[in-house]
Amino acid sequence: MNIKYKYILYTMNLSKITGDKENTYKNYITKHGNFSYILTIIINEELCENEKNIIISIIYNFINDKIIVKNISGNNIPITWRISNEKDLLHYYTNNFCFILSDNLVQEHTKLLLNDITKIIDKDKFNFMITKPISKSIFI
C-alpha cells in the first residue's frame, strides 16, 4: 500500500453514533469537555503487528496531550490532541476553544504535524484523517 499525503476533512453527525464510539466520545467529553475535531491515525495494513504498535507508540509520544504550535501565515497556531482512553491510540481529539480555528487552519496545522512525524516514520506506513463533528444549535 502506498499511502501518500492525503488530508480528509469531513463531518459526522454525533447524534447518530451509538455503542463503543458513543462511550468513547462521552469519556472524552467527561475528561476534557467537548471536542471540535478528531484525528484518526491510519496504519498501513501490510505492516506486521509489532511495527504497527511501534508506529502507534511513536505517534502517541509525539502528540498526545502536548501543545503543538505551528506557524501558519505568520500566526502561531496551537493545537492539543488527546486520546479518550489508553485502549484507543488511533483516535485523538481536540477542543481548542481559546482559538476559533477554521477547517483550513486545522488542515494546514495537521499537514505540518504529519511532515514532522514523517521525519521519524516512513510516510508510506501511516496517514492522518481529520474528522469534524456536526454541531447542533440548541436554543434556550
Question: How do the strands and helices of this protein lay out in sequence?
Answer:
Layout: E1 9-13, H1 20-32, E2 37-43, H2 49-63, E3 66-72, E4 75-83, E5 91-94, H3 103-117, E6 126-134
Describe this structure in words.
With 140 residues, the protein is an alpha+beta fold. It has one domain (9-134). The protein has helices spanning 20-32, 49-63, 103-117, and strands spanning 9-13, 37-43, 66-72, 75-83, 91-94, 126-134. It has a six-stranded mixed β-sheet with strand order 1-6-2-5-4-3. It is globular, with a radius of gyration of 15 Å. The model is unreliable at 1-19 (pLDDT under 50).
Summarize the structure.
The protein has helices at residues 20-32, 49-63, 103-117; strands at 9-13, 37-43, 66-72, 75-83, 91-94, 126-134. The protein is of the alpha+beta class and 140 residues long. Strands 1-6-2-5-4-3 form a six-stranded mixed beta sheet.
**Mean pLDDT across all residues, rounded?**
76
Instruction: Name the helix and strand elements from N-terminus to C-terminus, one letter apiece.
Output: EHEHEEEHE
Helix/sheet category: alpha+beta
Which band does the percent of strand residues land in? 25-35%
Straight-line distance between termini: 50 Å
User: What's the gyration radius in Å?
Assistant: 15 Å
Helix content: 25-40%
How many individual β-strands? Answer: 6
- The number of distinct helices, counting runs of at least 4 residues, comes to 3
Uncertain regions: pLDDT < 50 for 5+ in a row? Answer: 1-19
Q: Classify the oligomer.
A: single chain
- Domain count, please report it: 1
| Broad shape | globular
For the biggest β-sheet, the strand order reads 1-6-2-5-4-3
Largest sheet: 6 strands, mixed
